[in-house]
């Protein structure tokens, strides 16, 4: 007889392998199986069961083998039952406070595991695997039900790291999934819960019908966040950065982040702002920063990022803010900055950005040591039922992308919610990974307080109308436990409402609303700048010695490592360019970064293929041929230099631009750059452009110095590889909200990058960068232009005699070199080509001065390679009155930016060039 024959065929092979593994190394098998095997001796010829069956019962008789078969099989089936609870228990929890859960099958009924009622009072060693010891099946089931099927459902068995699964099972086996708070802790939870409930009730009565996106139905979020901050302080967490949409935001600002209710009341009253320099935003979009002293005496910095109505966008920004703080102050222990992102159930399931952010979580360029994701799950999105909002079982199933654990919690059980939050914190701090909490509640008043939810969910809202709020439910529980009496709750509510009344009275005495800047400490050394300030020159000169130093370092690879020969020549050519006084575009970047690093500034660049550069011009990271070890020469300049970070990004625009925008928001002293693979692809991040980059200073009093590099130029590469859509950026420009440039010389690129850091203010900078010009022999600058020059908003024509000019042509970007080449071919001395390098703020006075200088010009031309409905033409018309009299030269208006056929592209390009020099060749008809 095979020594495993007592097992059925379905299990025997697996069991045999597992048991042999146990015999070789007991610690190599899962604790549950280890405990199981320890109770039996399968190796003896008698097939005996240690301490279970008397020897004489099993020695050499058929009866004994039958007994063994039955007993071991039952133990095995109990283990399967335990695994069933671990894997599927979350499907059968009591986590929905207002309606029955969906029915899933098979259930956890014991019959599904080959067990029956007759086994309930039989004791099983399998109980050891869950920490309950040798127990009856009835006791084991009760233990499992308490852990896995009450107010908290845990998903973790899909995790592929044994140490994490072991951690979960050990924590759960000692009932660590069950709340266990003392009387004082329970009273504090009730206090915070009362603040959440009373705050919303107060607003509901004082500001009837006004939108506030109340937390009602999810008020337990407030005591949970409070407990999270206190417990995180024990882990020596120094800073929180939180992002959340509108639901519950006002309560969080007041009851967690310490924003005065007086200020919120002023915002409800619709008062004007104390400063003219910004237009403000609705009250539930504003950010806040404060310091809080925790119970253990530690100080913790709290930040809640401003956000637009575009749900989930703020999550990417939060991760960038956190990473900037970690790089700057907590490089030795990044987990001391904790990101928290609060989602809605419909948003986390429906917005693709969430997937991009989740995929960042373990990448070198974007990881933040784990994020706590909290879903305020209303079970509805505006008017859309959850069954229409997703195909997945849970809204949090996105967590499985990175095998992150999920805790589903009944929002009415406040102790369970607090406990789950602390459990999530412990996991994050130990494993530095994301963890998700699905806070399952409801939404009391519909999407906003003016909405009528009964139109679309009459049955659900009938149940909600009868449902008690979480505070009253918890108060009854504490009263029944004898911890408080009814007067205790009344006093809590009365005291808090009196405090709110005082704040309301104080707010009515104020004429203006004051908006506190977000992260004011990071920005205390910076001023705001209007358009006039933006047009003032900034000293971007640097010493030739620094240029020489940087060049020498970035031109020499380590001698003891082997590199591809082509890379060696490319790196060495940097020194040759410097010696020959002909610096190209790549050198403009390298020397700008290097000199800023020598000054102590950090530089961060990210985007698709930025390490090498899409067009193979940058090579900021060099790979050793044999090992692929990465060499970053910019980090070898000096002992006290700034840090140079450069990362190839995941294939994302939206998420990565949001991340880098957040990074620049938190680190104004860093030159933060995002580069598009092609400028056309930046529209994948359009929400970031519209809601943050162009509007944040107006809405949130928030500066940002993010640089966007967008390769742009018509070289016959088709519709998606030609235009960076500059017309869209220019349409977003207003007053003083950003810089937009289309540089044509390496020196100008060098100085505009340095200006971005040397200025005493910060504005987003959009630069349309070249492709073909990266290696054009005419596109070079001198060392002196780098060392002693400055950024030129307009570059006049130095090759033409002013008095000979009959046609004055204004142009921007790479098209200048096409026109210059044609002018040489035609030997035209009467055409001046003037480059507008900065498109916004438009240097109107400099343009007018040049127009005045060429007084003999018979015509003024605006020339662009883009179609008439694209490019900068409409921008020129809007910002320069004289442009209405210019002869406009461009491609015809098109729906697509460029033709796919190279023959057709060249033909159109030639037509535009011809029309610049001969107005009779009008291509517009």
UniProtKB/TrEMBL annotation:
Matching CDD domains: TPP_E1_OGDC_like
SUPFAM superfamilies: Thiamin diphosphate-binding fold (THDP-binding)
EC code(s) of this entry: 1.2.4.2
One Pfam family per UniProt: 2-oxogl_dehyd_N
MF terms in GO: oxoglutarate dehydrogenase (succinyl-transferring) activity
Residues annotated as signal peptide: none
Coiled-coil stretches: none
Enzyme class: oxidoreductase
PANTHER family for the chain: 2-OXOADIPATE DEHYDROGENASE COMPLEX COMPONENT E1, 2-OXOGLUTARATE DEHYDROGENASE
Family in the record: Belongs to the alpha-ketoglutarate dehydrogenase family.
Full protein name: oxoglutarate dehydrogenase (succinyl-transferring)
């Amino acid at each position: 007889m095979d020594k495993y024959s007592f097992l059925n065929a379905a299990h025997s092979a697996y069991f045999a392998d597992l048991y042999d593994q146990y015999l070789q190394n007991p610690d190599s098998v899962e604790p549950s199986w280890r405990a199981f095997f320890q109770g039996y001796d399968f190796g003896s010829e008698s097939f005996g069961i240690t301490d279970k069956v008397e020897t004489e019962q099993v020695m050499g008789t058929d009866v004994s083998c039958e007994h063994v078969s039955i007993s071991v099989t039952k133990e095995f089936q109990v283990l399967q039952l335990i695994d069933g609870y671990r894997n599927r228990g979350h499907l059968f929890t009591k986590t929905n406070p207002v309606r029955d859960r969906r029915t899933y099958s098979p259930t956890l009924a014991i019959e599904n595991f080959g067990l029956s009622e007759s086994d309930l009072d039989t004791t099983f060693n399998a109980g050891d695997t869950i920490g309950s010891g040798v127990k009856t099946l009835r006791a084991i089931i009760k233990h499992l039900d308490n852990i896995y099927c009450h107010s908290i459902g845990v998903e973790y068995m899909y995790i592929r790291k044994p140490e994490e699964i072991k951690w979960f099972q050990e924590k759960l086996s000692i009932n660590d999934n069950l709340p266990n708070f003392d009387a004082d802790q329970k009273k504090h939870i009730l206090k915070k819960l009362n603040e959440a409930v009373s705050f919303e009730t107060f607003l509901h009565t004082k500001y009837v019908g006004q939108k506030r996106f109340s937390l009602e139905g999810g008020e337990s979020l407030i005591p949970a966040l409070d407990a999270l901050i206190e417990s995180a302080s024990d882990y020596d967490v120094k800073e929180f950065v939180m992002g959340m949409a509108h639901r519950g935001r006002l309560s969080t600002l007041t009851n967690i982040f310490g924003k005065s209710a007086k200020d919120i009341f002023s915002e409800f009253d619709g008062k004007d702002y104390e400063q003219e320099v910004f237009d403000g935003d609705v009250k539930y979009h504003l950010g806040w920063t404060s310091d809080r002293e925790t119970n253990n005496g530690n100080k913790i910095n709290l930040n809640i990022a401003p956000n637009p109505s575009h749900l989930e966008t703020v999550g990417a920004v939060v991760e960038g803010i956190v990473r900037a703080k970690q790089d700057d102050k907590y490089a030795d222990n990044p987990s001391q900055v904790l990101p928290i992102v609060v989602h809605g159930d419909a948003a986390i399931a429906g917005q693709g950005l969430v997937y991009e952010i989740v995929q960042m979580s373990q990448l070198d360029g974007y990881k933040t040591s784990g994020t706590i994701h909290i879903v305020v799950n209303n079970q509805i999105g505006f008017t859309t039922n959850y069954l229409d909002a997703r195909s997945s079982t849970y809204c949090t199933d996105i967590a499985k992308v990175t095998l992150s654990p999920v805790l589903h919690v009944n929002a009415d059980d406040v102790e369970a919610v607090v406990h789950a939050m602390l459990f999530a914190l412990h996991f994050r701090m130990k494993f530095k990974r994301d963890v998700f909490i699905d806070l399952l509640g409801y939404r009391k008043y519909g999407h906003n307080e003016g909405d009528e939810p009964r139109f679309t969910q009459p049955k659900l809202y009938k149940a909600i109308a009868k449902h008690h709020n979480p505070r009253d439910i918890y108060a009854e529980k504490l009263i029944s436990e004898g911890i408080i009496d009814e007067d205790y709750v009344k006093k809590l509510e009365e005291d808090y409402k009196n405090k709110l009344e005082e704040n309301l009275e104080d707010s009515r005495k104020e004429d203006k609303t004051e908006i506190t800047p977000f992260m004011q400490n990071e920005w205390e050394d910076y001023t705001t700048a209007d358009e006039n300030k933006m047009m003032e020159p900034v000293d971007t000169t640097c010493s030739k010695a620094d240029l020489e130093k940087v060049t020498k370092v970035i031109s020499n690879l380590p001698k003891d490592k082997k590199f591809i020969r082509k890379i060696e020549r490319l790196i060495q050519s940097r020194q040759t360019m410097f010696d020959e006084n002909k610096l190209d575009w790549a050198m403009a970047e390298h020397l700008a970064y290097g000199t800023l690093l020598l000054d102590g500034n950090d530089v961060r660049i990210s985007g698709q293929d930025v390490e090498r550069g899409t067009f193979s011009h940058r090579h900021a990271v060099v790979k050793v041929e044999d090992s692929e070890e990465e060499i970053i020469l910019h980090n070898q300049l000096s002992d006290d230099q700034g840090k140079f970070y450069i990362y190839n990004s995941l294939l994302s625009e939206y998420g990565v631009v949001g991340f880098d925008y957040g990074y620049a928001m938190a680190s104004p002293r860093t030159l933060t750059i995002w580069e598009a693979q092609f400028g056309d692809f930046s529209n994948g991040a359009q929400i970031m452009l519209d809601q943050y980059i162009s509007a944040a200073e107006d809405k949130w009093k928030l500066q940002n110095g993010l640089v966007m590099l967008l390769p742009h130029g018509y070289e016959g590469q088709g519709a998606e590889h030609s235009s960076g859509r500059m017309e869209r950026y220019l349409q977003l420009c207003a007053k003083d909200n950003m810089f937009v440039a289309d540089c044509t010389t390496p020196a100008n690129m060098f100085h505009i990058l340095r200006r971005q850091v040397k200025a005493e203010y910060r504005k987003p900078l959009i630069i349309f960068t070249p492709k073909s010009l990266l290696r054009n022999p005419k596109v070079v600058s001198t060392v002196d232009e780098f060392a002693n020059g400055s950024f030129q908003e307009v570059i006049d024509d130095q090759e033409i005699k002013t008095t000979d000019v009959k046609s004055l042509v204004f142009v921007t970007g790479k098209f200048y070199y096409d026109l210059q080449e044609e002018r040489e071919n035609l030997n035209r001395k009467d055409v001046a080509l003037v480059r507008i390098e900065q498109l916004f703020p438009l240097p109107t006075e400099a343009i007018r001065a040049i127009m005045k200088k060429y007084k003999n010009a018979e015509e003024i031309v605006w020339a662009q390679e883009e179609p008439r409905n694209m490019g900068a033409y409409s921008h020129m018309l809007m910002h320069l009155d004289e442009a209405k009299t210019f002869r406009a030269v461009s491609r015809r208006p098109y729906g697509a930016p460029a033709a796919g056929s190279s023959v057709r592209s060249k033909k159109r390009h030639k037509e535009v060039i011809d029309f610049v020099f001969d107005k009779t060749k009008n291509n517009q008809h």
